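Entry 14. Ran structure prediction on the chain below.
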Amino acid sequence: MTTYSDLPDEMKPAASRYLKRMYSNCDFMTREMNAHDLKMIHTMTKMNKIYSDIKDRKSKSITISKYEAQSIDTMTLPPPPPVAPKVQQKEKPNVKIHYCQAIKMDGNVCNSKVKACSEFCGRHSKRK
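Output, structure tokens:
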């Protein structure tokens, strides 16, 4: 079994946080760690490294005074990238939709679309 003092230096901060949280009622420095403890500490170390990499890659914003902003305004900025011309959309053909002309049992006109080469929808057309 492994103890806290046997761990590499890069894993010790994560190990101390984990062991304090899990085993608060005993001395974690001398406690032997099982496989689950070691796996959790290893995972926490990897996660902390990944989080710090992400934090370093994030863009940072700063607050400046109006006097600093005026001096920045006088600096020349690179020209903006050229804008691609917009592609004109083709006009859609004007399509007229025909509806069924049958009268339903409740007295209203049917609002279904007609079948090809017919005046009625599939429900109201003649059956063969």
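Helices lie at 12-22, 35-57, 66-73. Will compare against last week's run tomorrow.
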